[in-house]
Amino acid sequence: MTKVDQVERKKIDYHSILLFYVVALAIRFLAIYVLPTHINGFDRTLWGQLLSGAGPCLGALLVMAVFRKRLFCSVFGLSVAKSLLCLALPVVLLVAVDWSNGLQFSVLFLACIIYAFLEEVGWRGYLLGEFSSLKQWKRVVIITVFWFLWHMDAPHLTNIVFLLIILLSTWGLDQIAVDSHSLIFCSCLHGSFNLLKRGNDNNIFNDTSATVIFILTVVGWFLIWYVIRKKSINK
């Protein structure tokens, strides 16, 4: 039984969940179907790409304002220092190895994390909290369905592999959220998946050093949150 499963049973607020999800879907639909048809190249702009992922965040913020909800996860979670280290680690490694290319890669990495953060405020920040009284496998399945359908474009919704990726990601991020309560840590891991796609599109991972640093960064995040924590507890 996880820490979340031990939380006192509470009634699930379906009204706030409905408002959250309607807003999340509406913003997503606006960003990927409506605005690109009226503004040429909107979906390729920075603002267009950020808006496509902003629905869960905006939905969560509205629910917090209307229903006085509190997020299950905070920005820094149980440790401000560890959350900031997660952001700093890839930048330091990349810039130390190659100043010019590393700086460019860092910007892309951080952009992927920011995009993921907009999603994580909704999925792990708000929605996980609403279903926190359920057993882990139940809320993982429910949030997987919410997250999967939110993508709404046909190539994703007809791809069973993508559904399995969402399911495994939801399970992993659920556990990370329970352990750290850090939206930044969740966003770093979520953003790393986004980076894999962006990196392949831009041939970034053809560079061996970039690939090695990416792997070291992900390993480093887990060491920061789990190994350091265990050592401090043992002391």
What does this structure look like?
The chain is mostly helical and 235 residues long. Helix content is 78%, strand content 0%. It is globular, with a radius of gyration of 18 Å. Residues 231-235 have low confidence and may be disordered.
Which SSEs are present, and which pair or pack?
Elements: H1 14-38, H2 46-67, H3 80-97, H4 99-130, H5 136-151, H6 154-157, H7 160-180, H8 183-201, H9 208-234
Helix pairs in contact: 1-2, 2-4, 3-4, 3-8, 3-9, 4-8, 5-7, 7-8
Mean model confidence by pLDDT: 88
Major β-sheet, in short? none
**What's the order of the H and E elements?**
HHHHHHHHH
Strand content: under 5%
Shape from CA axes? globular
Please report the distance between the alpha carbons of the first and last residues: 26 Å
Which structural class should the secondary elements be placed in? mainly alpha
What count of helical segments does DSSP give? Answer: 9
**Rg calculated over all Cα atoms:** 18 Å
**Low-pLDDT segments, ≥5 res:** 231-235
Helix content: over 70%
Strand element count: 0
Keywords:
single chain; 235 residues; mainly alpha; 9 helices; 78% helix; disordered C terminus
Summarize the structure.
The protein has helices at residues 14-38, 46-67, 80-97, 99-130, 136-151, 154-157, 160-180, 183-201, 208-234.
